[in-house]
Specification:
Length: 309
Amino acid sequence: MSILSDIKIKLEKYRFDRVISKIYMTRPLKMSDDGPVLLSQLCHRDVAPYLLAAKSLYFEIGKGRFKIVNDGSLTEDDISILQHHIPILEIININTIDTTGLPSGGTWERLIRIIELTHDNYVIQFDADVLAIGSLDHVTNFINLNKSFILGTYSGQQVNHASYTASLAQGWIASTKTQKISSGLLAEASLDSIPQTMPNNYVHGSSGFAGFGKKQFSIKLLKDFSDCMYKILGDRWFEWGSEQIASNYMLSNADNSEVLPIDLYACHEPHLRPSQRSLLHFIGSHRHSDATYRLAARDFIKKFYKDSN
């Protein structure tokens, strides 16, 4: 990254922070104790964007109960602010989640709690840098049908046999010029080694926004998949990013799961036109590369404020 590009990104981040601070001045959500569980893992620095994401999702879905896995960095003030803005909210201490037989750290605790909660609930996982921009008709339909959904990528727009993604990943590794390959990419390249006795579906998706149907998941399958990957990758499986692979695997093998249409639900890239999207995930690599996130946040805060009066 050039010095000029770095300066532009820092300036855009400063402008974004000024805009998003106004989320604290919006009214608390008006909630009813029904609908899906809306779960996130949250840290101190992401409280403001989380409130933006949470309010934008609830504005469109119109129901749900929020749960936050506290990574340990939330302060008493953070929790007080969150409870003020989100009346139906449970804060879960990350240390209370049982990771026996599974990796810990990263966002593994989040995935484990999601799988546990699906015994009795439909669960939507969303990252703090997700923003609902328009109608979420596909999401509400999947909730009503109890169908799981995955946020797709340009390389993953439908669920296929795992060997399909393995072939893609092997090609990406062969063409990469970096010395160290990420554990996630290595895991995807190894998907063709999954035993035939295990479910073998997969899609190269993003775990930043996902829907987990009620009674469609088990900790046993999660542990079986994790054990399989550990036998192949060794300690690399415990590195950051492995949880997303496990999440994609679990969702891909749920009954009738679908990938959200990428023309409406996508990870943000500079060439995308947000006006044509229902939801964007502003991943780190492109979060503040242009003004899209800031302007979308500004527009939602204005819309939410107007609806409140």
